[in-house]
Amino acid sequence: MPGYNVANALRGHATERPGAIAIKFPARSYTTATPTWDAWTFAQLDQQSDAYARGFAAAGITAGDRTTVLFRPSLELYAVLFALFKLGAVPVLLDPGMGLRPVLACIERTRPRVVIAMPVVHAVRTFARRPFASAEILITVGRRWFWGGTTLAACDQPGPEPFPIVSCDAADDAAILFTSGSTGSAKGVASKQAMFAAQVEALRQMFDLEPGQIDQQAFAAFAIFDICLGMTSVIPKMDLSRPATARPEDIVAAIQANAPDVAFASPIVWQNTTRYCQQTNTRLDPLQTVLTVGAPIPADLHRRFMELLPTGAQVYTPYGATEGMPISWIGSEEILGDSDSDSDSEGTWSQTARGWGTCVGRIAPGAWVRIIEIHDDPIPTWSDELALPSGQLGEIVVGGDQVSPEYKDVPEANVEAKITDGARVLHRMGDLGYLDADDRLWFCGRKAHRLQTTAGIVPPVPVEGIYNEDPDVFRTALVGVGPVGAEVPVLCVEMEPGNVYGPHVEARLRALGQGTRYEGLVKRFLPHPGFPTDARHNSKIRREDLKPWAEARCGDLVKPAP
């Protein structure tokens, strides 16, 4: 079906609300005490992206051209992205936080025709030529030195008329978005034109998002959704590629200066910010909706937010992945329960604390979810007989327009993760979970992180939920020491800042496990100074890195393979 293009939304808002602010970034004069902002209206963003689109077209960029975009988030970044959308070109976006070698591997795999990047990337290109061998059009964002090509400034070509937006088909690639590589190598996900449109519509319905609202956004790619929704996207003062380094003072300063309706950040940002707010007696009254993704968050974070937010505000934890989102969502009210009610309104967290996993809520508009048996074998074709009944643990399989049908240039990954179901393609999330009697989805951890013991499979997240209840513990991670099939469960423990692990903590942890479905499962508790986490969210625990660390300290527990 023709007529799709991500840029149509920007053009529409620029026509209907030209003077409304589309996006804001901290100005060079910004300080925490006196925060100042640079901003573009929808009309300015539309006009600037038109100017770049003219320059890109003159440089030879055409529809379908894969374009690696690698420069720091800025007003100009979004003008570049929407210029590429208008041309029908395909931006390739990846996390620089994953490291130089993985970034170069991703570039080589996608074979871009165009590279739009800051000078350091082009400098790297001069001695790492192989990953960039396919690049024919080189554009430097900033000063160009000896590496050839043109500059972004030279591509700024204003014109008297709006640039004509290319009409795309629903199945055309809108962008290629790389996964974080938190489990395995990073892979390029094909974000189709129809997929992007479905994601925007699902987010609008789920969170009642409207043009004119303000979203404080800590994920660079998600600001595109804000713009398409007609919202103002405010980027706080932080390194978006390293959320753990964000200063709470700057997160709060942005909220106080811009009065956002919505704020979106990774769990580690909100953990640090809410602690700071408690310590400084600072409220977050402008906010009505807080969103966080990337890892399960503890009830304590929900409770802290409830003390800081106005009455009626909620914290939502939508579930999804680069390959498909949003899939489900749940708010703090359902998680914590109604403590002010006379009824026995028990929140889902009471079950989490007893070892039943983390509820990620009801299925999102347009999404389809089933649970299948846990195994690593390919499934070429879907059959309804594969679906497990409610309450049974398995792997989560998803479908719908907001789900990508393919990884680009990684055929073996498509064999492992994709299932054909007639005209549509389903995706195996690589996550463990189950559906309850109310059709709510419960998350139980990554399939790759499951323990395979002599007694069977043990999912990590339900076990961790029991021990995360200790008030002095920041988070825990269940890993198996020893060979697959004979892994022995060991719990790594990271303490809250300022707290010290000792026998008294271990005694409390052992007591928490008593009477639960996993009583006696954990054979040893190991304090850890700070868990390794993923590059994108700084929140997903890299249990595959903790396993050898734990094995080095628990050699006496290791059993021979069965």
Tally of DSSP β-strands:
27
**CATH topology title of the domain at 7-188:** Rossmann fold
Look at the structure and name the CATH superfamily of the domain at 7-188: ANL, N-terminal domain
Number of helices: 16
Low-confidence stretches: none
In short:
By secondary structure, the chain is of the alpha/beta class.
Describe the protein's architecture and organization.
The structure is a single chain. With 562 residues, the chain is α/β, with parallel strands linked by helices. It has 16 helices and 27 strands. Strands 15, 16, 17, 18, 19, 20, 21 and 22 form an 8-stranded antiparallel beta sheet that branches. Helix 8 crosses helix 9 (267-280) and helix 9 packs across helix 10 (299-308). The radius of gyration is 24 Å and the shape is globular. The protein starts with 6 loop residues before the first helix and ends in an 11-residue tail after the last helix.
List keywords for this structure.
alpha/beta; Rossmann fold; GMP Synthetase, Chain A, domain 3; 8-stranded antiparallel beta sheet; 7-stranded mixed beta sheet
List the helices and strands and how they pair.
Elements: H1 7-16, E1 21-26, E2 37-41, H2 42-59, E3 66-70, H3 75-87, E4 90-93, H4 100-110, E5 114-117, H5 119-127, E6 137-140, E7 150-151, E8 173-178, E9 188-192, H6 193-207, E10 214-217, H7 223-229, E11 232-234, H8 248-258, E12 262-264, H9 267-280, E13 289-291, H10 299-308, E14 314-316, E15 319-321, E16 324-329, H11 332-336, H12 349-352, E17 358-363, E18 368-372, E19 394-399, H13 411-417, E20 418-421, E21 424-435, E22 441-446, E23 451-453, E24 456-458, H14 460-467, E25 473-481, E26 488-495, H15 503-513, E27 524-527, H16 543-551
Parallel strand pairs: 1-11, 3-4, 3-5, 4-8, 5-6, 6-7, 10-11, 10-12, 12-13, 13-14, 26-27
Antiparallel strand pairs: 1-2, 8-9, 15-16, 16-17, 17-22, 18-19, 19-21, 20-21, 21-22, 23-24, 25-26
